[in-house]
Amino acid sequence: MSFVAALALFVGVLVVAPYLAHRLRRKRADDRPFAAAHLVPPAPPRARRRSRLEDRALFATRALAVLALALLGASPLVRCSRLALQRSSGASVALAIVLDDSMSMRARLDGGKSRFDRALEGARELLASAREGDAVAIVAAGEPARVALAATTDIHAAQAALDGLAESDRATDLEGAIAMARALVGQLPQVDKRVVVLSDLADGHSDKPPIGEGSEMPVWVALPELRASGTDCALLSADRAGLRVRVRVACSPGATAQGREITLTAGETVVAKGAAPQTAPADAVVMLSAEPAGELVARLGGADAIGTDDVATVMTESGPGALAVIGDTAAESAATGGAPLIEQALAALKLEIGVRPIPVFPERAEDLAPFVGVVLDDPPGLTPEQRRALGDFMDNGGVVLLALGPRAAVAPLGASLEPILAHAVRWELTKVPGADPSSPRAGLEEAANTLLELDANHRAILDAEDIGKLNALLAWKDGPPLVATRTAGRGEAWLVTLPFSVDSSDLTLRPGFLSLLDMWVERARMHASARRGEVATPWLFPGVRRLAVVGPKGPVEAQRDGATWRVSPPLIGNYRVEFDDGKREIRVATPSARELDMRPRAAAPNTAGRDFGDTRAAVDVSWVVALILLFLTACELGLRVFSSTVRPVEP
Prior knowledge:
The chain is of the alpha/beta class. 24% of the residues lie in helices and 27% in strands.
């Protein structure tokens, strides 16, 4: 409060004046001697009875009037910290609020309130200053940027949308959120359009151009107190191999976890401790003395700006997976020697996962666990044990690429290609040169251009019942499928009605074959998504009819895109996934290393808000105080008239 405001409120001290006036009006009577007074019985002096205040209602009214007068004089000078819109004219405003719900907004301000809570409070203050005809849109800036509310003139709906927002552990996508906000209000009829950013601007790109620079639509970066710098350390991962636990620690730029301790707990029991690394990012190795009972959790001791990222679930170390290739290596090798063509083609794609040839298809599902995809090139049928292992592999999300050729058509008795195909395959002559140019689907359009004239005298023909269960991606010119897929459990099977041998066709020599392989590998990666990933990185569950996901704070909504479920974890921690067949698995969401950079990004000078908003607004209550003062004046007049007409009876 300023000195002038305090001086104006000091007028309230004049409330003593009515009290003094009432007391002075009740002076004590003068004593005069009277000889006959001894004949009158003693009685208390009237002046003593009058020494107390009379007309207390009138006194109270006058005192309140003085206080109201002091408040009326001080009200234009009193200001409070709150957000409000400045209007250059009486026209309505189209306002897009960008509210940052990323992990860095969990940091606390000096008053103990989190940055997110202050930003949410500021958004509500802006809505309170909105008028009839104003349009409001709300965008959440946690990665990926999301529309919390499309542009609307219903302020109550905007308030409800704000109530639905909560803190998360996402990274920050300020540029995407601002672009989305501009698009939401850009086509509205209001002439005055603005974007208000309520964020700490810690998006991990402090070296990029300032926020709002060069923007055609005014951008107001409000609440500068949110942009306080800070430091944070986090556990990015914790992997266990035997009794050895490797913990990955990362910190804000310039900060380390030196002097802090890493604790491993199983339930409530501490099973091991170790020192945090002196530099970051770096790994700390903690050794267990014995096999723990229960789930292991790693914790980083000490305190920093954010505590939710100091805990990580310990997972068993596993490799990135591999692709298994099963076929007749002698028949599939090139004439010049070397590896089979299918292996050479996979190597040409420069994949991040390995390719492992194995002689025969395994008979146990456990032997397929290291693989994310299996290539079966013209297999001579599968035994019952192999079919059971194949079914379990696809039920758990595995993807198979099955090439059909002459050996698949002459499978021995008791062997078949179930569960992919229920009927036998025929190997017959073909009179069409290649693929139908109008048949490609699902991204094979470009690849099909090189498969229109295939040199193939024979091809595999499928039973009509099996064709009815397939989804054709590419067809022969006379209609049967050349490339097709089929969902099996949580996995998929891709079928090609030509083998990968150059003796049967020139399919493997065409550029379109590499495109086909690349699509299949990408599909295998999608099905075998990692059990651990960064917050908000989608987990994909293709081929699942129903899905239930429970996160650290309860159920998490899953979105369906065709036959694929998509889940974006918003918080750090464990997620329990239950499938429609009753199977369960645990997935872990980890913090984004980029979000640990809490240095605020610069804001352009024209985003300070002097022209279209401000962070301090006057509290205009003078009209309310004036009405109260007028009412008190009327009451005083009424009381004076009443007290003059009604006089007490003298004793």
